[in-house]
Write a structure and sequence with these properties.
The protein is mainly alpha-helical. The chain has a domain at 32-115. It contains four helices and two strands. It has helices at 5-30, 38-60, 64-82, 95-122, and strands spanning 34-36, 89-91. A two-stranded antiparallel sheet has the order 1-2. α2 runs antiparallel to α3.
Length: 123
Amino acid sequence: MPLSEHEQRLLDEMERSLYQSEGDDVTTVGASHGRATVGAIVIGILVALAGVVLLLVGVGTRLPLVGVAGFAVMFGGALFAIAPPLRFRILDPERPRAAGAHRSSFMDGLGERWDRRNEGGEG
């Protein structure tokens, strides 16, 4: 069933606003991305292993506070290895543009599928 004229205008307006806000999202989110350095990954893994040891010591000695502290250290080390601070990253200037191109091609594909669906339903 085809869209009414009012529904089509609303859909077009939502699509325009999505394209405008999508560019802003890509630049704000993509600006802080980068790859972690080898040093950050190694430090994160070592801290996480120290947290595991501390957690096991806490369980072995039946001291819950030591176990909780070990878990916190382990979690912090894993988080540091996965998403280190900016000074432990290699920034990739090509990434925001690639993400924007990927998103726009995804949206273009959805638009093409929508058009094909509408053409098939009318015929």
